[in-house]
Amino acid sequence: MDINFVDPQHVPQPRDKIKIETLGARPYPDGWRVRVNVDVTAFQERPSLEVEVHTAEGKPIAQLSIIETMHKNMEFTVHIRGLTNPNGNYVLSAELYYDDRPT
Predict the structure, then answer these.
(1) pLDDT < 70 stretches in the chain
(2) What is the DSSP track for 50-87?
(3) Is residue 47, in this structure, part of any structural domain at all?
(4) Which of 17, 25, 40, 87 lies at 20 to 30 Å from 98 by C-alpha?
């Protein structure tokens, strides 16, 4: 008899197998906030992420640091700053990493 506590497709993986599976953004109706969704591979060791939103011209408008997340599926709200009008095209990027600095 097999008892599965974890979906077989979501078995926690070692750090060398962890990646960002999905990355998405959706603006709120007010235009000044953006909902960011990040899904990562199920993990054994908690990863960290840096998420950035830039204008199409490369000007940074929002940044988010997620330190040693406990969640595989994440949702955040970022606020557009430093612009007089939120209309335009934006670029969303994310980097997944592990901090191996000695403590």
Answers:
(1) 1-6, 8, 101-103
(2) EEEEEETTS-EEEEEEE-S-S-SEEEEEEE--S-S---
(3) yes
(4) 25
**Tell me, what CATH number does 72's domain have?**
2.60.40
Instruction: Look at residue 100 in the predicted model and tell me its pLDDT.
Output: 80
Q: Are 19 and 38 in contact (CB under 8 A)?
A: no
> Which domain, by its residues, includes 83?
21-97
d(CA 94, CA 40): 11
Rounded to two decimals, what is the model's pTM?
A: 0.84
Total domains in the chain come to 1
Round to whole Å and give the CA distance between 26 and 51: 14
